[in-house]
Each structure stands twice: as structure tokens, then as C-alpha cells.
Design a protein that fits this description.
single chain, alpha/beta, Uracil-DNA Glycosylase, subunit E, 15% strand
């Protein structure tokens, strides 16, 4: 296991709320496929291709999905919601406990939490890649005609970069 490598998603969905852990739904299945490529591409960052070998958290704790009571139509939290005091405290407490040395933000929304990370963790390497949700990777015109698993692997490779 590599618990000091932290993968940060935006927020829980329906499956994550039901099971009480991140990345157990479709995005988690997609992320598992992405990790196959990322492990080959950058084993220094991704020493395993198994999702369960990493620490997993969300930038915000409120589940967002259609059908949820109080659903406001957004599937991701706003930057202000991620940086709000209550969520800032929750996120900082979790990452302090994990003591990550490598953090990978999965999507723009997850990356909003980087501001919290910078004030909480002394030394770490940060990377970004895109969110693993199907709408995110399935819309790129360059991937037309490519099988789903290969699209995901290519998407992961195309979108991985270090945050300076």
C-alpha cells in the first residue's frame, strides 16, 4: 500500500454516499482504468495500478447527485464551498492525519483544495489530472472511435501534469 500518495476527488456521488467511501462508483471504476496507464507512465508517482493502494478523499464532503434531497443541480462544489471554514477544517484534519508526500488532484474542482493543502502539509509534490467521470473524458473529439478503456488511459496520460 502507498497511503502517503493521496488522490483527491471533488465530492461524493450516490454510490460514495451509500458506501461511505470515495471512488466506489463509476468514477472509481474509471479511475482504476486510468491508474493502469498512470502506473506505467509515472511509477514514481503511481507505484501501484490498484486504486485501493492509495489514500482517497474528497475536496468537499457534501454528496451531489440527481435525486438527492436538497440537490441544487450542481454535481461539483464551488471553490467558496471547498474553502469555507467548516470544510477547510475537515479537509486539513484528514490530510494532517495522512501526512501525504504526493497529492494528485482529480479535476479542476478538486484542485481548489490545493490552497488548504499548502497551509497544512509541510512538504509534498502536487499533480493534477482530469476528473474520471464519464462526461469528462468521453467528450474529447480526438478520442472518437477509440474504445472506452483506451480513451480513459489516453485521457489520464494527456492530462497529468505537476503543479508548480
Amino acid at each position: 500500500m502507498y497511503p502517503r500518495v493521496l488522490l483527491v476527488g471533488a465530492c461524493p456521488g450516490a454510490n460514495e454516499e451509500e458506501h461511505g467511501r470515495p471512488f466506489v462508483g463509476n468514477s472509481g471504476q474509471n479511475l482504476a482504468v486510468m491508474l493502469q496507464r498512470l502506473h506505467v507512465l509515472r511509477p514514481d508517482i503511481f507505484p501501484s495500478e490498484r486504486l485501493d493502494d492509495y489514500s482517497l478523499i474528497n475536496a468537499h464532503s457534501l454528496p451531489r447527485y440527481r435525486g438527492r434531497e436538497g440537490y441544487d443541480g450542481r454535481t461539483e462544489p464551488l471553490r467558496e464551498e471547498i474553502l469555507a471554514n467548516e470544510n477547510r477544517t475537515r479537509f486539513a484534519t484528514q490530510i494532517e492525519h495522512l501526512e501525504p508526500t504526493t497529492i494528485v488532484y482529480l479535476g479542476v474542482t478538486a484542485e481548489f483544495a490545493h490552497e488548504i493543502t499548502e497551509t497544512t502539509v509541510a512538504e509534498f509534490q502536487a499533480y493534477r489530472t482530469s476528473h474520471s467521470s464519464t462526461p469528462a473524458w468521453n467528450a474529447k473529439a480526438d478520442y472518437i472511435g477509440i474504445q472506452a478503456d483506451e480513451k480513459l488511459r489516453q485521457w489520464a496520460e494527456d492530462r497529468l501534469e505537476q503543479i508548480i
